Amino acid sequence: DAGVIQSPRHEVTEMGQEVTLRCKPISGHDYLFWYRQTMMRGLELLIYFNNNVPIDDSGMPEDRFSAKMPNASFSTLKIQPSEPRDSAVYFCASSLAGAPSNEQFFGPGTRLTVL
Amino acid sequence: AQSVTQLGSHVSVSEGALVLLRCNYSSSVPPYLFWYVQYPNQGLQLLLKYTSAATLVKGINGFEAEFKKSETSFHLTKPSAHMSDAAEYFCAVSELWNQGGKLIFGQGTELSVKP
What we know:
Order of helices and strands of chain A: EEEEEEEEEEE
Largest sheet of chain B: 6 strands, mixed
Number of helices of chain A: 0
Order of helices and strands of chain B: EEEEEEEEEEE
Oligomer: heterodimer
């Protein structure tokens, strides 16, 4: 298996622009998680899905952030409009419900820079 | 609610010395516990996991961790540090299995290895 795939790996944009981050989970996994990592706040869970349905979005910082999972093999995290404080590394992870350990598998991340 | 505390945001050891990274957790139910490693500019990779089997868990790259219920600890050790071990290490606890593996992460410990 190719593992969790994220695109783009790097994104540089200007303040006010829309940014879309993409994630393809491991085939067969039914949970998908979006995290944000910054020096100041560490690793934060933004939102997670089960069977394409959002379960907990309490970590989404504000209404400028939205996430969708239209099918089992694709998810997007959108920021509109983007701000410099959104600069961070965004990780996607997936897991399989019922697996004995609930291990999450992480993608390589998208490094977002908002100028 | 579950939580994780990693003692020491930065640990420095000499090459060949013992590595000890501390993790304490709180949980009202038997936990699943994890150590992840993050190398520079990469995603998180699972080092090892505790799933209520053996209390001493062996992972990749010579790392191991011991689950001590009485101390609510899951410290990570390696007998002899190597330069390639320099990375950030995250301890995590899993919430109830039926919540699909939502992980609660500690703040991370950055390990430096001096020649």
